[in-house]
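Sample A.
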Amino acid sequence: MNQYYETIMNLPAADDFKHLVQKWNTLSDRLKQTPLSTPSILPDMLWIVDPGSGITKKLTLLSEYIAAQGNLMDFYGDVKFFEFLMNYCPPDTPCTEIPRLMNEVRNAAGFRSEYRGMIRIHIDEWIGHCEEEHFTSLLEYLASNSDNWLIIFTISSFKASDSSTLEAILSMYLRIEKLTLRLPDVQSLFEYAEDILASFGFTLNEQAKSLLVDSIEILKRGKYFDGYKTIKLLCHDIVYDSFSNSQNSDTLLTEQTLSAFSVGSPYLERAIIKTERIYPIGFSVRG
């Protein structure tokens, strides 16, 4: 059994993603009955994502899963995937993004003659502009390379209500399958926090559990809440605060010992501001 398949199936709050991989698992089994020269028939994708829903982790698992299957697509280059933010270029300005993407493809190929792999392209800035020539030129470029690449467009969930034209345009150039990636619910995030704290030897009484659930709920409401990453930072701050306090060596966390992390605390107010991150212009993440 593919170990990455098992890891994906155990992910919390990722039903659409798991359903996709289950379909591809069935597809892989069926393809084993066809000639080895069968080209990749995976569709390109449009992912509607909640900020903080763990896109890079899911891309890593997906690329490793596909590579381990051996018959869904080929990988060739220095990385199996990279991520690219497609900045908006008005019609009366040069389109800098296609040359920049082409350069990233060359970097991903390394010393190889071509790149084969996955590319995530974040296109929030093009919502409402997807019928413009610069964007259709991008789609023409991507379509000409779709045999070698699995292209995953992503838009943020708060843009999804304006995406109907985008979906129609994408489908004119590429075979597109859509899925939605949501944030885990508060209970799943709390259980994740509880596991982290337990790894440091901490337990929580009922009042502390209630306090932590309330704090996580407030953090989750932030527009740019970063999912499990934010919860991990919160837990590490709790551990740091507890371990560095010479007045308290108890590993049982209570409402009192967690008061600095409660709703309305200066820490939580700062944390909400910290989660409102802004992507740098033209970010590119490799995996």
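Sample B.
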Amino acid sequence: MLEQMVKSVITKTLTADYPHLTLPAVSYAIVSSAKKLAETYELEELVIYNDESGGSYRGHIVASWYEYGLTIIDRFGNVDEDFPPLPGIRSKKQFQSGAVVAVAFAYGDISPAIIGEVVL
């Protein structure tokens, strides 16, 4: 009886004060929309090697940011109705619509960070 009471109090506390602890920290999502943004970022101080000649040269890369709409799915690929569609998720990584990605909800934040593409 005491064990059930303690379990009930812990469950109630988690639900009320720490709801992010009852959800997985990392989930899967389907990329429902993808858009290349005009905003760019730069990777500097790169060294590019030529495998054929053995030479190298310094360079940099200018690349675009991307904005994605995500739909959270369960581990079997079914849409998880507990999560609404997540629009406006920005990333430097490029994914096609329909790709399955792993996303992290850091500290219970509702805006996930895309970790990378995965295969179910």
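B remarks: DSSP finds one helix and five strands in the chain. Residues 14 and 21 are 7 Å apart (CA to CA).
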